[in-house]
Amino acid sequence: MSKRLIPNIVTLANLFFGITSLWLTMESQYKEAAVAILFAMVLDGMDGRLARRLHVTSDFGKELDSLSDLVSFGVAPALLTYGSILNTIGYWGLLIAIIFALCGAIRLARFNVLNIKTHFVGVLITICGPLMAIFVLLSNRLPLEFYVIMSIVLSYLMVSNIKVPKY
Amino acid sequence: MSKRLIPNIVTLANLFFGITSLWLTMESQYKEAAVAILFAMVLDGMDGRLARRLHVTSDFGKELDSLSDLVSFGVAPALLTYGSILNTIGYWGLLIAIIFALCGAIRLARFNVLNIKTHFVGVLITICGPLMAIFVLLSNRLPLEFYVIMSIVLSYLMVSNIKVPKY
């Protein structure tokens, strides 16, 4: 197998877990859906590093990474949070969840275009999505209001102009 | 409102219908979920033309379009087909559905990188996704085997090297 393929397979595995999370949410298995997002997060932390270590970074890989991130850290956490918690406030809850995913998409599109080397503009979707998944895992300890506020705050932080240092 | 924003708002509306389709699939409202994908298709046909007509095409818009397309025409039709039909064959059905979405992601990433002006390489996800939605609308007239075969065939066509003329 060409070593060029390895990081892309890891990225596709990230997307695989994102879609699996959506399926688990459909099946009302919310804790498992949250864990799938955390698995996707681990894989997302690996693909870029692997590509750089193997000297096989590519534009194709970057595009695939972005696409996977929207599903695993935008759409999957949004529908998980709606399905498990925000649905108690009906359409308002759905709207808040969808806005989270839309802001994630704006964040990703902007990130690909800006291509600044020194820092990120706006908080990363790869931080906000897993955070929502962790909050869902703590759902018996946190009130509904927390989820409403956190969804809105994280949505805002993703599209804000806050500078986040690269590490 | 800046006219620069208009096409991007249409693209976000495409994504909005994609996520709405996933939510409707979660609620077992399969016909409505299929219609949501067709709404997304109509919007997807508008954003690029609108951007060109208003002379506001942008890299940001293209990235946002790709991201939205994966959700509306890759992930949403995949989970709709699984939820409404392919779940009768269990995990095999889920695997076939996920492969459809993964092939869609590969197609989109490749499309953005190749950037060929004269033709497309591989059948467009924006054709394959709505086709699956239409098949779901016809689900009382078509056998299970049809969905299994079509999912696999369309997955292959998206990642194939078939030349599709631009029109």
Describe the structure.
The structure is a homodimer of 167-residue chains. The mean pLDDT of chain A is 94. In chain A, 75% of the residues lie in helices and 4% in strands. The two termini of chain A are 31 Å apart. With 167 residues, the first copy, chain A, is mainly alpha-helical. Chain A has helices spanning 6-26, 30-53, 59-84, 90-114, 125-137, 144-159, and strands at 119-121, 163-165. A two-stranded antiparallel ribbon of chain A has the order 1-2. The interface between A and B is large, with 36 and 36 residues.
Low-confidence stretches of chain A: none
Q: Give the termini separation of chain A.
A: 31 Å
Q: Could you name the CATH homologous superfamily of chain A?
A: CDP-alcohol phosphotransferase transmembrane (TM) domain
> Within the largest sheet of chain A, what's the order of strands?
1-2
Topology order of chain A in helix (H) and strand (E) letters: HHHHEHHE
Counted by DSSP, the helix tally of chain A is: 6
Oligomer: homodimer
Strand content of chain A: under 5%
Largest sheet of chain A: 2 strands, antiparallel
CATH class of chain A: Mainly Alpha
Q: Largest protein interface?
A: A-B, 36 and 36 residues
State mean pLDDT of chain A (0 to 100 scale): 94
Please tell me the CATH architecture of chain A by its name: Up-down Bundle
CATH fold call of chain A: Four Helix Bundle (Hemerythrin (Met), subunit A)
Strands of chain A, count = 2
Structural category of chain A: mainly alpha
Radius of gyration of chain A: 16 Å
Q: What is the count of distinct domains of chain A? A: 1
- What form of chain A results from the Cα inertia axes? globular
Helix content of chain A: over 70%
InterPro entries (chains A, B): CDP-alcohol_PTase-I, CDP-diaglyc--ser_O-PTrfase, CDP-OH_P_trans, CDP-OH_PTrfase_TM_dom, CDP_ALCOHOL_P_TRANSF_CS
EC number (chains A, B): 2.7.8.8
Subcellular location (chains A, B): Endomembrane system
Enzyme class (chains A, B): transferase
